[in-house]
Predict the structure.
Amino acid sequence: MIILLGPPGGGKGTQAKILSQQMNRPYFPAGDTLKEYIKHRPDLNKIVQNGGLLESDEINGYLLKTALDLGEGVIFDGFPRTLKQCEFLCNNINTSLLEAVIILNVSKEEVERRISNRFICNICKTSYEENTYCCASPNIKREDDLVKEAVENRWGGFRKNIHYLINIFIEHNIKVLIVNGEGDKDAVTDHIIEKIGSKVNGKTII
């Protein structure tokens, strides 16, 4: 298993998808999975739309089970994000199967620029830096990208929690790799592959 973490708009989803394709591994988008789970729960949905985080055992258990059900070597996009989620993960899996945690380092200024320019496909959820078409439908803005307070809350939550997460991973002897997440996506992918090496647990990266 590999975990990709980073600030909102940091590119973790894009990089997780690329690694999933190159390594022929299942991809788990925690954010999209959570939004689907809570879309009929207005109380929880409001928290997420305001940039808050959900971390009850119910939510964490659902996310982890959904990810593990995808198969071996799953690549996590954005989970865990909080101290409680990280402790839940480490207490409910064999941590020796966690090959690496990749943290994308992106400045707040770059995050704000990316989010202001970000559009997504409402069908396949692919991100774009322009308002074009994908899957035969026009791209849209994410609801939580439109609320400045939500963006600030998500940024602040990431900066607050990431140091705690790093400490927990290190305590469990899990490899933590900090990667420069700025620049074009191919360059970032190259940095990730250089960091983790040509193989991770016998899985060759093409």
In short: Helices lie at 12-23, 30-38, 42-49, 57-68, 83-92, 108-117, 148-171, 185-196. The chain has one domain: 2-106+148-204. Residues 33 and 63 are 7 Å apart (CA to CA). The domain at 2-106+148-204 is CATH 3.40.50.300 (Rossmann fold).
